[in-house]
Amino acid sequence: MGVLSTIAVAFWLMLPAYVPNNAAVLAGGGRPIDGGRTLGGSRLLGDGKTWRGTAVGTAAGAVLALALNAVAGDVGSAVGIDLPTFPFAVVVALPLGAMCGDIAASFLKRRTGRRRGAPFPVVDQLDFVVLALAFAVVVAPGWFREAFTLPVLAVVLLLTPVLHVGTNVLAYWFGFKDEPW
Ligand code: CTP
Ligand code: K
Ligand code: MG
Q: What is the ipTM of this complex?
């Protein structure tokens, strides 16, 4: 596979994990997952992790994965790239894993004295990728090995931080987000 095809496939595969965080930002609010509970004087997760944001984010990623499945054949032949489809378990695992990664990062932020919204470089950019991939490999190991070849994984790890920084700066400029990270 050429470099451009590898980048296209990596982006395609990760779209259902990229969209949940952004959907959560738009949908956020309401009851926090931790219900206000604290641990060692700091919030367990904080007000930035809500049930609604998590549910809407996961649903948005899953709906997108189903939409990609529906158009993979047509788009693939139009651009001349063999675009993968997502087995149903992965349709759920990628967005749910992405949301859980973001939640796990908030847990770590609160344990390390970072307030809600404080930046946590590297963790902020990769938390959702790591758990999205982990959930996918657990629910569909055979599919995962075929789809996520080493070059695709390498592109994902390089591309994701760039896209994450870019979309968050845009979301901040447009007023959807309180901080540009
Ligand atoms: N959000 C949500 N539920 C989630 C993730 C995000 O409701 N599971 C919403 C919240 O309104 C949150 C906003 O999206 O404030 C931005 O998300 P994020 O940057 O992940 O949260 P922060 O507010 O920065 O909080 P933290 O420091 O815990 O990451
Ligand atoms: K975050
Ligand atoms: Mg934040």
A: 0.98
pLDDT in tens, 102-145: 999 999 999 999 999 999 999 999 999 999 999 999 999 999 99
Sign of CA dihedral 77, 155, 166, 27: positive
Collapsed DSSP state (helix, strand, coil) of residue 123 = helix
Residue-range domain boundaries for the chain: 3-173
Q: Are 45 and 110 a contacting pair, CB within 8 Å?
A: yes
* Predicted model pTM: 0.96
| Closest ligand 1 atom number to CA of residue 124 | 29
CA torsion 130-136-139-140 (nearest 10°) is: -140
Instruction: Identify which of 18, 19, 21, 25 to mutate to test ligand 1's pocket (most ligand atoms within 8 A of the CB).
Output: 25
Ligand nearest to the CA of 118: 1
